[in-house]
Design brief:
By secondary structure, this protein is an alpha/beta fold. It is built from 16 helices and 13 strands. It is elongated and about 85 Å long. It binds one RNA strand of 77 nucleotides through helix 3, strand 8, strand 13, helix 13 and helix 14.
Length: 485
RNA sequence: GCGCCAGUAGCUCAGCAGGAUAGAGCAACGGCCUUCUAAGCCGUAGGUCCGGGGUUCGAGUCCCUGCUGGCGUGCCA
Protein backbone atom coordinates (compact mmCIF):
# COMPACT_ATOMS: atom_id res chain seq x y z
CA UNK A 1 0.00 0.00 0.00
CA UNK A 2 1.35 3.40 -0.91
CA UNK A 3 0.94 6.31 1.41
CA UNK A 4 0.09 9.69 0.08
CA UNK A 5 3.02 12.03 0.44
CA UNK A 6 1.01 15.22 0.15
CA UNK A 7 -2.02 16.29 2.04
CA UNK A 8 -2.84 19.12 -0.28
CA UNK A 9 -1.47 21.10 -3.15
CA UNK A 10 -2.54 24.63 -3.92
CA UNK A 11 -1.60 27.73 -5.81
CA UNK A 12 -0.49 30.56 -3.60
CA UNK A 13 0.03 33.72 -5.52
CA UNK A 14 2.27 34.41 -8.50
CA UNK A 15 4.73 31.62 -9.06
CA UNK A 16 4.09 29.67 -5.92
CA UNK A 17 2.67 26.21 -5.55
CA UNK A 18 2.36 24.93 -2.02
CA UNK A 19 2.64 21.25 -1.31
CA UNK A 20 1.44 20.33 2.13
CA UNK A 21 3.23 17.23 3.28
CA UNK A 22 1.03 14.51 4.73
CA UNK A 23 1.21 13.99 8.46
CA UNK A 24 2.04 10.34 7.94
CA UNK A 25 5.31 11.36 6.33
CA UNK A 26 6.23 13.38 9.38
CA UNK A 27 5.36 10.51 11.68
CA UNK A 28 7.54 8.12 9.69
CA UNK A 29 10.38 10.59 9.96
CA UNK A 30 9.93 10.80 13.71
CA UNK A 31 10.14 7.04 14.04
CA UNK A 32 13.32 7.04 12.04
CA UNK A 33 14.80 9.73 14.29
CA UNK A 34 13.98 7.79 17.43
CA UNK A 35 15.45 4.62 15.97
CA UNK A 36 18.77 6.37 15.40
CA UNK A 37 18.92 7.29 19.08
CA UNK A 38 22.04 9.31 19.93
CA UNK A 39 23.40 8.81 16.44
CA UNK A 40 20.76 11.11 15.00
CA UNK A 41 22.54 13.98 13.26
CA UNK A 42 25.55 11.86 12.43
CA UNK A 43 26.22 11.70 8.70
CA UNK A 44 29.03 10.70 6.40
CA UNK A 45 28.95 13.98 4.57
CA UNK A 46 32.62 14.78 5.23
CA UNK A 47 33.77 11.50 3.73
CA UNK A 48 36.53 11.14 6.33
CA UNK A 49 38.49 14.07 5.02
CA UNK A 50 41.27 14.97 7.41
CA UNK A 51 40.97 18.52 8.66
CA UNK A 52 43.42 20.32 10.90
CA UNK A 53 41.90 23.09 12.97
CA UNK A 54 44.43 25.38 14.58
CA UNK A 55 42.98 27.82 17.07
CA UNK A 56 43.82 30.07 20.01
CA UNK A 57 47.60 29.66 19.61
CA UNK A 58 48.13 32.41 22.15
CA UNK A 59 51.52 33.64 23.25
CA UNK A 60 52.46 32.01 26.53
CA UNK A 61 53.07 35.43 28.03
CA UNK A 62 49.97 35.76 30.15
CA UNK A 63 46.60 34.32 31.03
CA UNK A 64 44.20 33.61 28.20
CA UNK A 65 42.02 36.59 27.50
CA UNK A 66 38.55 37.10 26.18
CA UNK A 67 39.63 36.98 22.55
CA UNK A 68 41.15 33.55 23.16
CA UNK A 69 37.91 32.56 24.81
CA UNK A 70 36.01 33.37 21.64
CA UNK A 71 38.50 31.39 19.60
CA UNK A 72 38.25 28.52 22.06
CA UNK A 73 34.47 28.37 21.86
CA UNK A 74 34.52 28.70 18.10
CA UNK A 75 37.32 26.27 17.30
CA UNK A 76 36.14 23.59 19.65
CA UNK A 77 32.56 23.72 18.41
CA UNK A 78 33.66 23.67 14.82
CA UNK A 79 35.67 20.58 15.63
CA UNK A 80 32.73 18.82 17.25
CA UNK A 81 30.40 19.77 14.40
CA UNK A 82 32.77 18.64 11.66
CA UNK A 83 33.37 15.39 13.43
CA UNK A 84 29.65 14.76 13.71
CA UNK A 85 29.11 15.03 9.99
CA UNK A 86 31.83 12.70 8.92
CA UNK A 87 35.02 14.71 8.72
CA UNK A 88 38.13 13.65 10.60
CA UNK A 89 39.16 16.87 12.31
CA UNK A 90 42.04 17.45 14.69
CA UNK A 91 42.59 20.31 17.11
CA UNK A 92 45.97 21.94 17.36
CA UNK A 93 47.51 24.66 19.51
CA UNK A 94 50.66 26.35 18.25
CA UNK A 95 52.74 27.68 21.12
CA UNK A 96 54.73 30.82 20.30
CA UNK A 97 57.26 30.05 22.98
CA UNK A 98 60.22 31.59 21.24
CA UNK A 99 61.22 35.03 20.13
CA UNK A 100 60.99 38.54 21.39
CA UNK A 101 57.81 38.44 23.41
CA UNK A 102 59.01 35.55 25.52
CA UNK A 103 62.29 37.32 26.18
CA UNK A 104 60.41 40.37 27.33
CA UNK A 105 58.38 38.17 29.63
CA UNK A 106 61.54 36.77 31.20
CA UNK A 107 62.89 40.28 31.69
CA UNK A 108 59.63 41.37 33.28
CA UNK A 109 59.77 38.52 35.78
CA UNK A 110 63.38 39.26 36.49
CA UNK A 111 62.63 42.88 37.34
CA UNK A 112 59.77 41.91 39.63
CA UNK A 113 61.96 39.30 41.27
CA UNK A 114 64.72 41.77 42.00
CA UNK A 115 62.12 44.16 43.26
CA UNK A 116 61.13 41.59 45.86
CA UNK A 117 64.67 41.86 47.20
CA UNK A 118 64.31 45.63 47.45
CA UNK A 119 66.53 46.32 44.52
CA UNK A 120 65.94 49.62 42.88
CA UNK A 121 64.80 48.69 39.39
CA UNK A 122 63.85 52.23 38.47
CA UNK A 123 60.84 52.81 36.28
CA UNK A 124 59.15 49.57 35.17
CA UNK A 125 59.60 49.62 31.37
CA UNK A 126 56.54 50.39 29.25
CA UNK A 127 57.17 47.50 26.90
CA UNK A 128 57.39 45.00 29.77
CA UNK A 129 54.42 42.97 30.97
CA UNK A 130 52.61 44.86 33.67
CA UNK A 131 50.02 42.36 34.83
CA UNK A 132 49.65 41.28 38.42
CA UNK A 133 50.38 37.71 37.35
CA UNK A 134 53.99 38.73 36.64
CA UNK A 135 54.40 39.80 40.25
CA UNK A 136 52.70 36.61 41.41
CA UNK A 137 55.06 34.53 39.32
CA UNK A 138 58.08 36.38 40.73
CA UNK A 139 56.80 35.71 44.19
CA UNK A 140 56.34 32.05 43.45
CA UNK A 141 59.82 31.87 42.04
CA UNK A 142 61.14 33.49 45.19
CA UNK A 143 59.41 30.94 47.39
CA UNK A 144 60.99 28.13 45.40
CA UNK A 145 64.44 29.46 44.70
CA UNK A 146 64.91 32.06 47.41
CA UNK A 147 67.53 34.69 46.63
CA UNK A 148 69.77 32.20 44.85
CA UNK A 149 69.01 33.55 41.42
CA UNK A 150 70.20 37.04 42.28
CA UNK A 151 73.74 35.80 42.29
CA UNK A 152 73.87 33.74 39.10
CA UNK A 153 75.00 35.24 35.83
CA UNK A 154 72.38 37.37 34.13
CA UNK A 155 72.10 35.16 31.09
CA UNK A 156 71.51 32.02 33.13
CA UNK A 157 69.17 33.86 35.39
CA UNK A 158 67.02 35.04 32.48
CA UNK A 159 67.06 31.59 30.95
CA UNK A 160 65.93 30.06 34.21
CA UNK A 161 63.18 32.61 34.55
CA UNK A 162 62.01 32.03 31.04
CA UNK A 163 61.73 28.30 31.65
CA UNK A 164 59.87 28.87 34.84
CA UNK A 165 57.48 31.46 33.44
CA UNK A 166 56.66 29.47 30.32
CA UNK A 167 55.87 26.34 32.28
CA UNK A 168 53.74 28.24 34.76
CA UNK A 169 51.80 30.23 32.21
CA UNK A 170 51.14 27.27 29.97
CA UNK A 171 49.83 25.36 32.93
CA UNK A 172 47.57 28.33 33.69
CA UNK A 173 46.31 28.42 30.15
CA UNK A 174 45.62 24.73 30.08
CA UNK A 175 43.69 24.98 33.28
CA UNK A 176 41.49 27.70 31.78
CA UNK A 177 40.88 25.57 28.73
CA UNK A 178 39.94 22.65 30.88
CA UNK A 179 37.38 24.78 32.68
CA UNK A 180 36.02 25.71 29.27
CA UNK A 181 35.81 22.06 28.17
CA UNK A 182 38.23 22.61 25.34
CA UNK A 183 40.75 19.93 24.50
CA UNK A 184 43.51 19.66 21.94
CA UNK A 185 44.86 16.70 20.04
CA UNK A 186 48.27 18.23 19.62
CA UNK A 187 50.44 21.05 20.89
CA UNK A 188 53.21 22.28 18.64
CA UNK A 189 56.00 24.27 20.23
CA UNK A 190 57.82 26.89 18.21
CA UNK A 191 60.97 26.27 20.27
CA UNK A 192 60.91 22.58 19.53
CA UNK A 193 60.37 23.35 15.88
CA UNK A 194 63.34 25.71 15.88
CA UNK A 195 65.42 23.12 17.68
CA UNK A 196 64.77 20.61 14.94
CA UNK A 197 66.53 22.77 12.41
CA UNK A 198 63.41 23.48 10.42
CA UNK A 199 64.21 27.16 10.35
CA UNK A 200 67.48 26.60 8.52
CA UNK A 201 65.71 24.14 6.30
CA UNK A 202 63.09 26.68 5.26
CA UNK A 203 65.73 29.31 4.61
CA UNK A 204 67.66 26.99 2.36
CA UNK A 205 64.54 25.77 0.59
CA UNK A 206 63.57 29.31 -0.21
CA UNK A 207 67.10 30.14 -1.29
CA UNK A 208 67.22 27.09 -3.54
CA UNK A 209 63.95 28.15 -5.07
CA UNK A 210 65.67 31.44 -5.84
CA UNK A 211 63.31 33.62 -3.89
CA UNK A 212 65.66 35.16 -1.37
CA UNK A 213 68.21 37.93 -1.60
CA UNK A 214 70.36 40.05 0.66
CA UNK A 215 69.89 43.74 1.08
CA UNK A 216 70.87 46.19 3.83
CA UNK A 217 72.54 43.34 5.71
CA UNK A 218 69.25 41.47 5.97
CA UNK A 219 67.88 38.44 4.13
CA UNK A 220 64.66 39.04 2.23
CA UNK A 221 62.01 36.85 0.74
CA UNK A 222 60.71 38.07 -2.60
CA UNK A 223 57.13 37.77 -1.55
CA UNK A 224 56.00 40.28 -4.14
CA UNK A 225 56.72 37.72 -6.84
CA UNK A 226 54.12 35.51 -5.24
CA UNK A 227 51.27 37.88 -4.78
CA UNK A 228 52.23 39.82 -1.67
CA UNK A 229 52.40 43.57 -1.93
CA UNK A 230 56.05 43.77 -0.95
CA UNK A 231 59.07 41.69 -0.03
CA UNK A 232 59.54 40.55 3.55
CA UNK A 233 62.49 40.18 5.85
CA UNK A 234 63.46 36.67 6.87
CA UNK A 235 66.67 37.41 8.75
CA UNK A 236 67.16 40.68 10.50
CA UNK A 237 70.26 42.82 10.47
CA UNK A 238 71.25 41.45 13.86
CA UNK A 239 71.31 37.91 12.48
CA UNK A 240 68.15 36.73 14.20
CA UNK A 241 65.16 35.56 12.22
CA UNK A 242 61.69 37.08 12.09
CA UNK A 243 58.66 35.21 13.42
CA UNK A 244 57.72 34.67 9.81
CA UNK A 245 60.28 31.92 9.22
CA UNK A 246 59.27 29.44 11.92
CA UNK A 247 55.69 30.15 10.98
CA UNK A 248 56.35 29.06 7.41
CA UNK A 249 58.10 26.01 8.80
CA UNK A 250 55.13 25.25 11.00
CA UNK A 251 52.74 25.45 8.09
CA UNK A 252 54.94 23.24 5.98
CA UNK A 253 54.72 20.59 8.69
CA UNK A 254 50.98 20.78 8.31
CA UNK A 255 51.33 20.00 4.63
CA UNK A 256 53.72 17.18 5.37
CA UNK A 257 51.24 15.60 7.70
CA UNK A 258 48.90 15.08 4.80
CA UNK A 259 45.71 16.87 5.74
CA UNK A 260 43.05 17.47 3.16
CA UNK A 261 42.47 20.89 4.58
CA UNK A 262 44.07 23.10 7.20
CA UNK A 263 42.01 25.73 8.94
CA UNK A 264 43.73 28.57 10.81
CA UNK A 265 41.48 30.44 13.18
CA UNK A 266 43.06 33.85 13.66
CA UNK A 267 42.37 37.22 15.18
CA UNK A 268 41.61 40.14 12.86
CA UNK A 269 45.01 41.67 13.54
CA UNK A 270 46.63 38.94 11.47
CA UNK A 271 44.96 39.46 8.16
CA UNK A 272 47.69 41.68 6.79
CA UNK A 273 50.03 38.79 7.37
CA UNK A 274 48.27 36.16 5.29
CA UNK A 275 49.40 37.24 1.79
CA UNK A 276 53.03 36.73 2.74
CA UNK A 277 52.34 33.36 4.33
CA UNK A 278 50.47 32.23 1.25
CA UNK A 279 53.28 33.63 -0.90
CA UNK A 280 55.78 31.46 0.94
CA UNK A 281 53.58 28.43 0.57
CA UNK A 282 53.29 29.06 -3.13
CA UNK A 283 57.04 29.58 -3.41
CA UNK A 284 57.56 26.21 -1.79
CA UNK A 285 55.14 24.67 -4.26
CA UNK A 286 52.41 23.62 -1.93
CA UNK A 287 48.73 23.89 -2.67
CA UNK A 288 47.59 27.10 -1.03
CA UNK A 289 43.96 26.15 -1.54
CA UNK A 290 44.32 23.65 1.25
CA UNK A 291 45.05 26.40 3.72
CA UNK A 292 41.94 28.17 4.84
CA UNK A 293 42.01 31.19 7.10
CA UNK A 294 39.11 32.12 9.33
CA UNK A 295 39.26 35.53 10.92
CA UNK A 296 37.36 35.91 14.11
CA UNK A 297 36.52 39.54 14.45
CA UNK A 298 37.44 41.31 17.59
CA UNK A 299 35.67 41.30 20.90
CA UNK A 300 34.81 44.67 22.37
CA UNK A 301 34.33 44.60 26.05
CA UNK A 302 31.97 47.02 27.71
CA UNK A 303 31.21 47.66 31.31
CA UNK A 304 27.98 49.50 31.96
CA UNK A 305 28.04 50.75 28.41
CA UNK A 306 31.61 51.98 28.60
CA UNK A 307 34.25 50.43 26.43
CA UNK A 308 37.02 48.65 28.30
CA UNK A 309 40.41 49.14 26.69
CA UNK A 310 42.48 46.02 26.81
CA UNK A 311 46.20 45.69 26.57
CA UNK A 312 48.10 42.59 27.51
CA UNK A 313 51.32 44.39 28.21
CA UNK A 314 49.68 47.00 30.38
CA UNK A 315 48.05 44.16 32.29
CA UNK A 316 44.61 45.52 31.57
CA UNK A 317 42.87 42.45 30.35
CA UNK A 318 39.82 40.55 31.29
CA UNK A 319 40.86 36.96 31.48
CA UNK A 320 39.03 33.91 30.32
CA UNK A 321 38.94 32.73 33.94
CA UNK A 322 37.28 35.91 35.10
CA UNK A 323 34.72 35.52 32.37
CA UNK A 324 33.96 31.96 33.40
CA UNK A 325 33.73 33.05 37.04
CA UNK A 326 31.28 35.80 36.23
CA UNK A 327 28.99 34.35 33.60
CA UNK A 328 29.70 30.64 33.77
CA UNK A 329 31.07 28.26 31.16
CA UNK A 330 27.79 27.45 29.43
CA UNK A 331 26.67 31.03 29.07
CA UNK A 332 30.09 32.22 27.93
CA UNK A 333 30.45 29.54 25.28
CA UNK A 334 26.93 30.04 24.05
CA UNK A 335 27.39 33.80 23.89
CA UNK A 336 30.51 33.51 21.75
CA UNK A 337 29.10 30.89 19.46
CA UNK A 338 25.88 32.73 18.72
CA UNK A 339 27.73 35.38 16.76
CA UNK A 340 28.88 34.50 13.33
CA UNK A 341 32.68 34.59 13.17
CA UNK A 342 32.94 37.53 10.79
CA UNK A 343 30.97 39.83 13.06
CA UNK A 344 32.45 42.06 15.72
CA UNK A 345 31.25 41.10 19.11
CA UNK A 346 30.18 43.51 21.78
CA UNK A 347 30.20 42.04 25.21
CA UNK A 348 28.86 43.98 28.13
CA UNK A 349 30.14 42.48 31.35
CA UNK A 350 27.69 44.45 33.42
CA UNK A 351 24.74 43.19 31.42
CA UNK A 352 26.04 39.64 31.53
CA UNK A 353 26.14 39.70 35.30
CA UNK A 354 23.02 41.73 35.91
CA UNK A 355 20.57 40.08 33.60
CA UNK A 356 21.45 36.53 32.99
CA UNK A 357 18.05 36.13 31.36
CA UNK A 358 19.49 38.08 28.45
CA UNK A 359 21.40 34.98 27.59
CA UNK A 360 19.22 32.49 25.75
CA UNK A 361 21.33 29.57 26.88
CA UNK A 362 19.01 29.24 29.88
CA UNK A 363 16.01 29.29 27.63
CA UNK A 364 17.33 26.25 25.79
CA UNK A 365 18.57 24.38 28.82
CA UNK A 366 15.23 25.02 30.46
CA UNK A 367 13.46 23.28 27.61
CA UNK A 368 15.67 20.26 28.13
CA UNK A 369 15.10 20.23 31.89
CA UNK A 370 11.37 20.61 31.40
CA UNK A 371 11.16 17.54 29.23
CA UNK A 372 12.92 15.60 31.93
CA UNK A 373 10.42 16.57 34.53
CA UNK A 374 7.56 15.70 32.20
CA UNK A 375 9.00 12.24 31.78
CA UNK A 376 9.30 12.00 35.53
CA UNK A 377 5.68 12.98 35.86
CA UNK A 378 4.69 10.27 33.37
CA UNK A 379 6.43 7.70 35.48
CA UNK A 380 4.55 8.91 38.53
CA UNK A 381 1.28 8.57 36.65
CA UNK A 382 2.22 5.04 35.62
CA UNK A 383 2.33 5.92 31.98
CA UNK A 384 5.14 3.90 30.46
CA UNK A 385 6.41 5.50 27.25
CA UNK A 386 8.13 2.26 26.28
CA UNK A 387 4.84 0.37 26.25
CA UNK A 388 4.05 1.92 22.93
CA UNK A 389 3.49 0.97 19.35
CA UNK A 390 4.37 3.43 16.63
CA UNK A 391 0.93 3.06 15.06
CA UNK A 392 -0.26 5.07 18.04
CA UNK A 393 1.53 8.04 16.52
CA UNK A 394 -1.69 8.66 14.61
CA UNK A 395 -2.65 10.52 17.75
CA UNK A 396 -0.24 13.22 16.64
CA UNK A 397 -2.30 15.36 14.28
CA UNK A 398 -1.68 18.96 15.25
CA UNK A 399 0.20 21.44 13.14
CA UNK A 400 2.54 22.35 15.97
CA UNK A 401 3.43 18.69 16.37
CA UNK A 402 4.25 18.40 12.69
CA UNK A 403 6.28 21.60 12.94
CA UNK A 404 8.32 20.15 15.78
CA UNK A 405 9.04 17.03 13.77
CA UNK A 406 9.99 19.13 10.79
CA UNK A 407 12.47 21.01 12.92
CA UNK A 408 13.95 17.75 14.17
CA UNK A 409 14.29 16.41 10.63
CA UNK A 410 16.32 19.48 9.78
CA UNK A 411 19.01 18.80 12.38
CA UNK A 412 21.50 16.81 10.25
CA UNK A 413 21.38 19.45 7.53
CA UNK A 414 22.02 22.22 10.02
CA UNK A 415 25.14 20.38 11.18
CA UNK A 416 26.36 19.98 7.63
CA UNK A 417 25.72 23.63 6.78
CA UNK A 418 27.45 24.73 9.98
CA UNK A 419 30.47 22.56 9.18
CA UNK A 420 30.84 23.51 5.54
CA UNK A 421 30.36 27.21 6.10
CA UNK A 422 32.51 27.06 9.25
CA UNK A 423 29.64 28.66 11.11
CA UNK A 424 28.85 26.96 14.42
CA UNK A 425 26.38 29.74 15.20
CA UNK A 426 23.88 27.99 12.96
CA UNK A 427 23.65 25.19 15.48
CA UNK A 428 23.12 27.71 18.28
CA UNK A 429 20.32 29.38 16.35
CA UNK A 430 18.78 26.02 15.62
CA UNK A 431 18.74 25.17 19.29
CA UNK A 432 17.05 28.43 20.22
CA UNK A 433 14.40 27.79 17.61
CA UNK A 434 13.75 24.22 18.65
CA UNK A 435 13.54 25.24 22.30
CA UNK A 436 11.06 27.98 21.49
CA UNK A 437 8.87 25.59 19.56
CA UNK A 438 8.89 23.19 22.45
CA UNK A 439 8.06 25.85 25.06
CA UNK A 440 5.07 26.94 23.01
CA UNK A 441 3.94 23.39 22.52
CA UNK A 442 4.26 22.68 26.21
CA UNK A 443 2.24 25.72 27.10
CA UNK A 444 -0.58 24.81 24.77
CA UNK A 445 -1.00 21.09 25.36
CA UNK A 446 -0.96 18.84 28.35
CA UNK A 447 1.45 16.06 27.56
CA UNK A 448 0.86 13.69 30.43
CA UNK A 449 -2.82 12.99 31.02
CA UNK A 450 -3.81 9.67 32.54
CA UNK A 451 -7.27 9.89 31.00
CA UNK A 452 -5.68 9.63 27.56
CA UNK A 453 -2.77 7.22 27.92
CA UNK A 454 -2.33 6.62 24.18
CA UNK A 455 -2.20 10.28 23.35
CA UNK A 456 0.15 10.85 26.25
CA UNK A 457 2.51 8.16 25.04
CA UNK A 458 2.51 9.54 21.51
CA UNK A 459 3.41 12.97 22.81
CA UNK A 460 6.06 11.56 25.13
CA UNK A 461 7.51 9.78 22.14
CA UNK A 462 7.77 13.10 20.34
CA UNK A 463 9.23 15.15 23.17
CA UNK A 464 11.78 12.47 23.93
CA UNK A 465 13.08 13.02 20.41
CA UNK A 466 13.19 16.76 21.14
CA UNK A 467 15.11 16.14 24.34
CA UNK A 468 17.65 13.88 22.65
CA UNK A 469 18.18 16.33 19.84
CA UNK A 470 18.66 19.20 22.27
CA UNK A 471 21.19 17.21 24.23
CA UNK A 472 22.89 16.26 21.03
CA UNK A 473 23.12 19.88 19.91
CA UNK A 474 24.25 21.08 23.35
CA UNK A 475 27.20 18.76 23.09
CA UNK A 476 28.17 20.30 19.76
CA UNK A 477 28.13 23.71 21.43
CA UNK A 478 30.03 22.49 24.44
CA UNK A 479 27.32 23.30 26.94
CA UNK A 480 25.70 21.09 29.54
CA UNK A 481 22.26 19.49 29.37
CA UNK A 482 20.79 19.89 32.85
CA UNK A 483 17.95 17.61 33.93
CA UNK A 484 16.84 20.06 36.54
CA UNK A 485 17.05 23.82 36.85
C1' G B 1 46.07 56.08 0.15
C1' C B 2 45.39 50.73 -0.16
C1' G B 3 43.32 46.01 1.99
C1' C B 4 39.85 43.24 5.28
C1' C B 5 35.27 43.19 8.38
C1' A B 6 30.84 45.41 9.56
C1' G B 7 26.33 48.93 9.05
C1' U B 8 18.88 45.20 9.74
C1' A B 9 13.67 47.44 15.80
C1' G B 10 15.81 51.79 21.51
C1' C B 11 20.13 47.80 22.57
C1' U B 12 22.66 42.90 21.13
C1' C B 13 22.19 40.08 16.87
C1' A B 14 19.86 36.11 13.05
C1' G B 15 18.21 36.06 8.09
C1' C B 16 20.74 29.32 4.93
C1' A B 17 21.40 28.83 -2.77
C1' G B 18 17.90 35.97 -4.62
C1' G B 19 11.49 34.37 -3.25
C1' A B 20 5.51 35.32 -0.31
C1' U B 21 3.64 40.05 5.13
C1' A B 22 12.05 41.12 7.20
C1' G B 23 12.77 37.64 12.58
C1' A B 24 14.65 36.46 17.87
C1' G B 25 16.37 37.97 22.66
C1' C B 26 16.73 42.15 25.96
C1' A B 27 14.44 46.87 27.16
C1' A B 28 8.75 49.20 27.20
C1' C B 29 3.46 48.28 27.88
C1' G B 30 -0.97 44.77 28.95
C1' G B 31 -2.43 39.77 30.30
C1' C B 32 -1.48 34.12 32.08
C1' C B 33 0.87 30.09 37.92
C1' U B 34 -5.15 25.12 42.71
C1' U B 35 -3.06 21.65 36.45
C1' C B 36 3.89 18.09 33.48
C1' U B 37 9.30 23.78 36.41
C1' A B 38 6.53 31.37 35.19
C1' A B 39 14.63 30.72 33.62
C1' G B 40 8.02 29.84 30.46
C1' C B 41 3.59 31.44 27.41
C1' C B 42 0.00 35.03 24.96
C1' G B 43 -0.75 40.02 23.24
C1' U B 44 0.62 45.48 22.07
C1' A B 45 4.19 48.79 20.34
C1' G B 46 8.61 49.42 17.63
C1' G B 47 11.91 49.08 10.64
C1' U B 48 13.20 54.56 4.40
C1' C B 49 17.32 46.57 6.08
C1' C B 50 23.39 53.32 5.94
C1' G B 51 22.43 56.56 1.12
C1' G B 52 22.25 56.42 -4.43
C1' G B 53 22.22 53.80 -8.98
C1' G B 54 21.88 48.91 -11.61
C1' U B 55 20.74 43.34 -12.79
C1' U B 56 15.64 40.57 -12.26
C1' C B 57 9.10 38.59 -12.74
C1' G B 58 11.20 39.41 -7.69
C1' A B 59 16.99 42.28 -3.87
C1' G B 60 18.31 42.72 3.32
C1' U B 61 20.64 38.96 0.04
C1' C B 62 24.03 39.88 -6.37
C1' C B 63 26.99 44.24 -9.19
C1' C B 64 28.75 49.48 -9.18
C1' U B 65 29.29 53.87 -6.26
C1' G B 66 29.26 57.05 -2.05
C1' C B 67 29.06 57.60 3.52
C1' U B 68 30.08 55.89 8.64
C1' G B 69 32.62 52.72 12.34
C1' G B 70 36.47 49.02 13.54
C1' C B 71 41.01 46.60 12.29
C1' G B 72 45.34 45.97 9.38
C1' U B 73 49.17 48.09 6.28
C1' G B 74 56.81 46.57 11.31
C1' C B 75 63.78 43.99 10.37
C1' C B 76 56.61 42.91 16.92
C1' A B 77 54.28 38.15 17.43
Amino acid sequence: MRKKAYRKIDIAGPGFINFTIANSMYRDALVSIRKQKTAFGTTEHGAEQRILIEFISANPTGPLNIVSARAAAYGDSLYRIMKRCGYRPEREFYINDAGNQVDILAESIELRYRELYNEDIGEFPVEAYHGQYVIDLAQKLKSIEGSRLIHVAERDRLEKMKEFALAQIMAMQQLSLERFDVEFDSWVSERVLRGQGTVEEILSFLTEAGCTYEMDEAVWFSASKFGDEKDRVLMKTDGSITYFVPDIAYHITKYQRGFDKMIDVLGPDHHGYIPRLKAAIRALKHDEEKLEIIFLQQVNLFDEGEKVKMSKRAGMIVTMDELIDVVGKDAARFFFIRRKPSAHLNFDLFLATQKSSENPVYYCQYAHARIHSILKKAKKENIDPDDFHTRNLKKLVRDDEMLLIKQLVDFPNVIIAAADNREPHRVADYVVELSGMFHKYYQKHTIVNKNYPDLSKARLYLITAVRDTLKNAFYLLGISAPKKM
